[in-house]
Design brief:
It is built from three helices and four strands. The chain is mainly α. The chain has one domain. The strands form two sheets. The protein has a two-stranded antiparallel sheet. α1 packs across α2 and α2 packs antiparallel against α3. The longest helix is centred in the C-terminal third of the chain and has 17 residues. The chain is globular, with a radius of gyration of 13 Å.
Length: about 90
């Protein structure tokens, strides 16, 4: 199913440290992109609704993302588009 395959792009391709979406797959797996991660968060909601993952799995991933962003470097309150998924530095 195409919908499930699209979901798994974000679920399986997420950075393991931050839970956020990598900029390039394949590519430099250290760099995540905040814009792509917004789509990844939407994919979490859809994935839980369509039972590709459990609601608890979605909440756990979202919590990981929020915790990562809480400590990520910001510029005048905004996050950079590209962030190192391991160090949270841009």
């Amino acid at each position: 199913m195409l919908q499930e395959a699209c979901f798994h792009y974000y679920w399986d391709g997420a950075d393991p440290s931050s839970g956020m979406t990598r900029e390039n797959i394949p590519g430099d797996d250290r760099i995540i992109a905040t814009g792509a991660s917004g789509m990844g968060i939407a994919a979490l909601v859809v994935g839980a609704d369509r039972h590709f993952i459990t609601r608890e799995q979605g909440v756990q991933r979202l919590t990981k993302i929020v915790n990562f962003l809480e400590h990520a470097q910001r510029y005048h309150g905004a996050w950079s588009h590209y962030i190192n998924g391991s160090t949270s530095q841009s």
